[in-house]
């Protein structure tokens, strides 16, 4: 078959056909346990029947409309999503991708504060383009507005002490220019690291005291992924703007930025103006509403904790000289790889990935950061984890 697709990234030599729950099938009928949840999107598993039902029902009613009109389902989804938060927010808009919502959130903070600079942590990933990208580790641009990402595995640590002078210096020079601090509460693409709580709280307090906003990127860590509803709960902070994407639509492209009317009130209607074709579309809203219902009805987060422990036991039980470290936060797992004999990390990671694929397990990896990643659906079944244990043990032993 001719392939007319631009090679924007590497593609596996198999074509996928259908999916259900934690499994995805190729066109030849081979099935794979999807330990990446698509692109970390299907926290409820692929094609969750209640989400599919909501899509079909809404498809028959109204998919799309002109931006000058709202629909009941959009209002209901907005209300349900605001209620889902552990703290009070009263305004939101629905957008499409995580990057789009990050761009909106950062620009919103700039307009509210009438300031221009964005503070971020050096190794986080915040989006594919725009300011989100330049604030991310994938940007080539080095900036004095990026603070190194301190990581340690201890709750009692000296990370804040080590970076305090650096942070204070940035605030001394630029506090009246800083519109926001943008934080990915657990860095996923960059290697599965959580910055220390004291450090995060210190920067958040500084920026909020100086009149800037805290913008939290929950595109990947939100919707139960870390074992809490939102990753920012791990840091015990109160963000001013929260950005959601990925699992909000469980595979359908819908994202959101959530904030408060007190910030909205600082903007004129022309400053607030934003319009793209599919913003607030009823189909996306119907999906968000059904996703939230499944979270409640199936106690997805509460039940994911047992799976998290089981997967932790499986991965921490792998004992090999080429495993440098295993890191995990809720249902986010990273295995840091070391070179082995003549094999480089890159070769080893690709070998593991290919052997696991042959064994029916789909995992993620990052060659430059030298780690393997697993973010399975939060409702993966215990027997599916047993299958994972058997296959991953065999593959790792074969190296
Ligand atoms: C933390 C984080 N922020 C933002 C994004 C961008 O989201 P999207 O790919 O939907 O534009 C991603 C995507 O992986 C992400 O992991």
Short description:
This protein is α/β, with parallel strands linked by helices. It has helices at 37-40, 49-61, 72-84, 98-113, 130-134, 159-174, 197-209, 261-264, 269-272, 282-297, 300-316, 345-358, 382-397; strands at 16-20, 23-26, 31-34, 91-95, 117-121, 146-147, 178-183, 213-217, 241-244, 255-259, 323-329, 332-337, 361-362, 364-366, 371-374. It folds into two domains: 16-44 and 299-397, Aspartate Aminotransferase, domain 1, CATH 3.90.1150.10; 49-297, Type I PLP-dependent aspartate aminotransferase-like (Major domain) (Aspartate Aminotransferase, domain 2, 3-Layer(aba) Sandwich).
Written overview of the protein:
With 399 residues, the chain is α/β, with parallel strands linked by helices. The protein folds into 2 domains: 16-44 and 299-397, Alpha-Beta Complex (Aspartate Aminotransferase, domain 1), CATH 3.90.1150; 49-297, Type I PLP-dependent aspartate aminotransferase-like (Major domain) (Aspartate Aminotransferase, domain 2, 3-Layer(aba) Sandwich). The chain has helices at 37-40, 49-61, 72-84, 98-113, 130-134, 159-174, 197-209, 261-264, 269-272, 282-297, 300-316, 345-358, 382-397, and strands at 16-20, 23-26, 31-34, 91-95, 117-121, 146-147, 178-183, 213-217, 241-244, 255-259, 323-329, 332-337, 361-362, 364-366, 371-374. It has a 7-stranded mixed beta sheet, sandwiched between helices. 43% of the residues are buried. The mean pLDDT is 94. The site of pyridoxal-5'-phosphate has 15 residues, from helix 4.
């Amino acid at each position: 078959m001719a392939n007319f697709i631009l090679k924007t990234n590497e593609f596996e030599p198999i074509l996928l056909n259908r999916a259900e729950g934690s499994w995805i099938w190729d066109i030849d009928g081979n099935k794979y346990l999807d330990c990446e949840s698509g692109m970390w999107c299907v926290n409820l598993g692929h094609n969750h029947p209640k989400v599919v039902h909501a899509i079909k029902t809404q498809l028959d009613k109204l998919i799309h409309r002109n931006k000058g009109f709202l629909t009941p389902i959009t209002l209901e989804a907005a209300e349900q999503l605001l209620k889902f938060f552990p703290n009070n927010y009263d305004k939101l808009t629905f957008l499409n991708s995580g990057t789009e919502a990050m761009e909106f959130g950062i620009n919103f903070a700039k307009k509210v504060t009438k300031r221009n600079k964005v503070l971020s942590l050096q190794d986080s990933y915040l989006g594919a383009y725009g300011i989100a990208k330049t604030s991310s580790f994938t940007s080539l641009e080095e900036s004095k507005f990026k603070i190194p990402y301190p990581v340690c595995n201890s709750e009692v640590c000296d990370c804040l002490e080590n970076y305090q002078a650096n942070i204070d210096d940035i605030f001394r020079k630029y506090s009246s220019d800083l519109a926001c601090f943008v934080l990915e509460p657990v860095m996923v693409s960059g290697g599965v690291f959580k910055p220390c709580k004291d450090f995060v709280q210190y920067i958040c307090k500084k920026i909020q005291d100086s009149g800037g906003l805290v913008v939290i990127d929950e595109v990947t860590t939100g919707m139960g992924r870390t074992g809490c509803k939102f990753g920012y709960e791990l840091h015990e902070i109160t963000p001013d703007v929260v950005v959601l994407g990925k699992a909000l639509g469980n595979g359908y492209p819908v994202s959101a930025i959530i904030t408060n009317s007190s910030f909205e009130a600082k903007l004129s209607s022309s400053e607030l103006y934003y319009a793209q074709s599919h913003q607030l579309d009823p189909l996306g809203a119907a999906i968000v509403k059904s996703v939230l219902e499944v979270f409640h009805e199936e106690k997805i987060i509460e039940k994911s904790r047992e799976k998290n422990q089981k997967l932790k036991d499986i991965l921490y039980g792998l004992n090999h000289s080429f495993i440098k470290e295993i890191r995990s936060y809720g249902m986010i797992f990273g295995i840091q790889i070391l070179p082995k004999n003549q094999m480089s990390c890159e070769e080893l990671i690709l070998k593991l990935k290919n052997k696991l694929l042959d064994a029916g397990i789909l995992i993620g990896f990052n060659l430059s950061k030298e780690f393997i990643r697993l973010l399975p659906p939060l409702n993966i079944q215990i027997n599916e984890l047993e299958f994972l244990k058997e296959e991953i043990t065999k593959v790792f032993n074969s190296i």
